[in-house]
Design goal:
The complex is a heterodimer of chains A (about 110) and B (about 120). With about 110 residues, chain A is mainly beta. Helix content of chain A is about 0%, strand content about 45%. Chain B is an all-beta fold and about 120 residues long. The chains are: A mainly beta (about 110), B mainly beta (about 120).
Chain lengths: ~110, ~120
C-alpha cells in the first residue's frame, strides 16, 4: 500500500520568511514523488517532481529515502505562493496510481 | 490546445436521474483519469484509461460508468447516485501511463461540481 502524509493542514508564514511544507511517504518499492499546487480559482497543476531536480518558482524538494520524506522548501516566501499544496506519490512501473496527501494550505502574511 | 476541458461546470441531479460528465483533451495524451474530490479532501483516483482501454478501476460502485470513445474524449456516466456522491469530479490526462520506471505529468481539468439531491 502507498500512503502520503502531510502533517500540517494550515501553515502561515510572513512574506520574506523561509517556507517548508512537510511530506512523508510510505511505499515498499521505488516511488516517484511530486508536489502539486492549486492556486485560488485555478486548476490543480504540477509544481515539481523529484526526478527532475528542478527549482520551480523558487521551490525545491529533495527526496530523502532514509527518512522517507519529500519536503518542499523556499528560502523567501512571496504573497503569490499562497495556495493549497499537495504532495503525491506514484509507485513503480506498472503502478500508475497517483496517491495524494491531505494537503497543506499555505498563507503568506504580507 | 494545451488544456483539459470538462463539461458541465456544475451539475445538480436527482437520485433517479441519468447524466454524463464529459472530459476532452487535444494534447495527444493516451492516458486519461477520473478523480473524485470531496470538500477539504485530496483527489481520489476512480478510473484510469490507457489507449482507450480501462486500465484501473479503484473499486468504484457500478452507478459510475466510465467510457472512452476515442483518444481525446472521456465520459463518466452517472445513474442512481446517492447524496454522498456529491463532490468535485476531476479529469486528468498524461502522455501515457508509466513506462521505463517513470511516470508522466498529469494535467488536470477544472472539474465538474456535482450535487445529488
Amino acid at each position: 500500500a502507498q500512503r502520503v502524509t502531510q502533517p500540517e493542514k494550515l501553515l502561515s508564514v510572513f512574506k520574506g520568511a523561509p517556507v517548508e511544507l512537510k511530506c512523508n511517504y510510505s511505499y515498499s518499492g521505488s516511488p516517484e514523488l511530486f508536489w502539486y499546487v492549486q492556486y485560488s480559482r485555478q486548476r490543480l497543476q504540477l509544481l515539481l517532481r523529484h526526478i527532475s531536480r528542478e527549482s520551480i518558482k523558487g521551490f525545491t524538494a529533495d527526496l530523502n529515502k532514509g527518512e522517507t520524506s519529500f519536503h518542499l522548501k523556499k528560502p523567501f516566501a512571496q504573497e503569490e505562493d499562497s495556495a493549497m499544496y499537495y504532495c503525491a506519490l506514484s509507485g513503480d512501473f506498472g503502478n500508475e496510481k497517483l496517491t495524494f496527501g491531505t494537503g497543506t494550505r499555505l498563507t503568506i502574511i504580507p | 490546445d494545451t488544456e483539459v476541458t470538462q463539461t458541465p461546470k456544475h451539475l445538480v441531479m436527482g437520485m433517479t436521474n441519468k447524466k454524463s460528465l464529459k472530459c476532452e483533451q487535444h494534447m495527444g495524451h493516451r492516458a486519461m483519469y477520473w478523480y473524485k474530490q470531496k470538500a477539504k479532501k485530496p483527489p481520489e483516483l476512480m478510473f484510469v484509461y490507457s489507449y482507450e482501454k480501462l486500465s484501473i478501476n479503484e473499486s468504484v460502485p457500478s452507478r459510475f460508468s466510465p467510457e472512452c470513445p476515442n483518444s481525446s474524449l472521456l465520459n463518466l456516466h452517472l445513474h442512481a447516485l446517492q447524496p454522498e456522491d456529491s463532490a468535485l469530479y476531476l479529469c486528468a490526462s498524461s502522455l501515457r501511463l508509466a513506462a521505463s520506471g517513470r511516470s508522466y505529468e498529469q494535467y488536470f481539468g477544472p472539474g465538474t461540481r456535482l450535487t445529488v439531491t
